[in-house]
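WARN no homologs supplied; continuing
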Amino acid sequence: MSALSIPLHVVAARRRPRLEQVVLVDEQDRPLGLMEKLAAHREGRLHRALSVVLRSPDGRLLMQRRASGKYHSGGVWTNTCCSHPRPGEAAAEAAVRRLREEMGISVPGLSKLFETIYRAPVGRGLVEHEYVHVFGGVWNGACTPDPEEVEDSAWMDPAGLRSDLAARPEHDSVWFRQYAELFWDRMIA
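OK structure emitted
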């Protein structure tokens, strides 16, 4: 197989460091240092994160079902893309990079939707405590998710998604539930 025939998310995954580090921050998103990602989640340390919410021109949201093998929250539905910037990487740049790596989507013009902090247990003794930069954009194409990251993806009607969140919240990530509760209008605008 030539290098040109390898999907971008596979090439990107091969370049990811084995022990990823996250940027620890204070409640104003000022950097405090670095920590190995899994250790930060074991200790529940506040760190910088990013999320992307893509919608179609007709208003549907592109959701992903996290791969069952993920270190936490495997098999639950969440927004289009979730990750952490690398040390020294701007959140906006990381959002574009991770959207390409996770979902095989290139959207250069993402807009900042909001920032939020949340803290929640996510199973296996891990705690998500993140200062999240959430970006949005409009997309009307196909996606080619990385199967190590994403088990499934679907375009979801906002009304149906909102009903499902109310009826079966355990099917969705804790962070997406918070986004929906606090920032729904910004995500669907």
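The longest helix spans residues 174-188.
OK
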